[in-house]
Amino acid sequence: MIRTAILSVTLAAAAVAADFKPYERVNPTPNLKKAMAGKLEVKRPLKFGMIKLTDCAAIVVAKELGYFADEGIAADIIVQPNWQAVRDNLVNGDLDGTHMLYGHPMAAAIGIGVQADIIVPYNMSINGMGISVSNDVWNRMAAKDPALAKPGYPMPLSAAPLKEIATAYRAEGKTLTMFQTYPAGSHNFNLRYWLASGGVNPGFYDGPQDAKGITGADVVLQVNPPPQMVSAMNQGNCQGFCVGEPWNMKLTIGEKTGRLAIPSQYVFDGSPDKVFCMTKKFADANPNTTKAVLRALIRAGRWLDDSMDNRRKLAEMLAHKDYIGAEAAIIAESITGTLVYGISADGTLDRRPEPQFNVFYKRYASFPLTSHGVWCLTQMRRWGMIAEDKPDAWYQEVAAKTFRADLYRAAFASLQADGLVKPDELPEKDQLAYPAEAFIDKIAFDPTQPNAYVKQFAVRKP
Which of 33, 205, 400, 404 stands the most exposed, by the fewest C-beta atoms within 10 Å? Predict the structure, then answer.
């Protein structure tokens, strides 16, 4: 499928950027009557973590628009330096809840990195990731496929040329290196999926204690924090990366040392990305507070997908120095439903409408589907993080105890009773199957048959 709209850089485009206004933060007063009526257990301000990525949006919106306050909650949002810090600060109690990669709680559940009971009562987004490459890699790809030299090249883009490019790099005494953000994370699995779909081996893990996963790799993958991806590309430390926004657009539009190659909806449309997590201990000890937090987040997610005006307001919020701190126009590029794939020598932007890139509420995007947990585990098994086969029932059990659809459904029911949500916004089942058309390699996913699914991949660890 090709969706193309090519626009030139004009004074009008510059004027659009100028429309964004500096955002002044607010600190709404919590509704104490609501807190008392809801019997909230935690009276102090709750501490929520976030990484500088646009998919933290629901937490920021719930704070800034007063959804947390309306539920009787005082909340502080604390920017975290990297994903390991996010995990550690949640587990040790420095955070009460946080923006996380969907693989974080799954890894913790099976003892990869740390053994901990982390739950997912709310899904923050689907899709939303991008894979970018350096100008050198792109030029080598374009030399093999002349269509890539012109704006509007078709999606999905195959990773197949990278195998030969990696060989050429080795002949030149170099290593083709791509960065992702965390071993058990969405960016790692999305990048690996894309590479493998083109016959490029991203490397295997030698069990749960191997943090590198480079055995047999054609392309070496390494970990780097999201906000540092662009500087890493500028310095020549990597030739590609997978990360959320606004960093692909910052690279493509701002720095121009590389460019967006393929967004994640063309790798797996509907792919899990970020989640909101708490420890099971906190949720069990504070059920009313947890429910109030989820009510606020559901309302925030609904607002995010309600209008384009809301998305533009979000761009201004996230541009604030206390949150992402990047230019509002760069943040708005993906948030408002477009992506720039590259800039031609004459200044022409290859800008395309991509309304499915950032999805926060529609398509059940905020619901913690257990099928997302199962899919995550299949990728861990595929790449060797899980060293041996497990029964199908094991995948279901681990996913169901981690992705807590029951907590979401309870919060949603209370919002429905208040007339704030509609019944058709809630899925009938806790898991979804995905057709072949949702994936770049055309391999359908049935969450009830994880072992059969993994065995279909040509590139996988035995």
Answer: 33
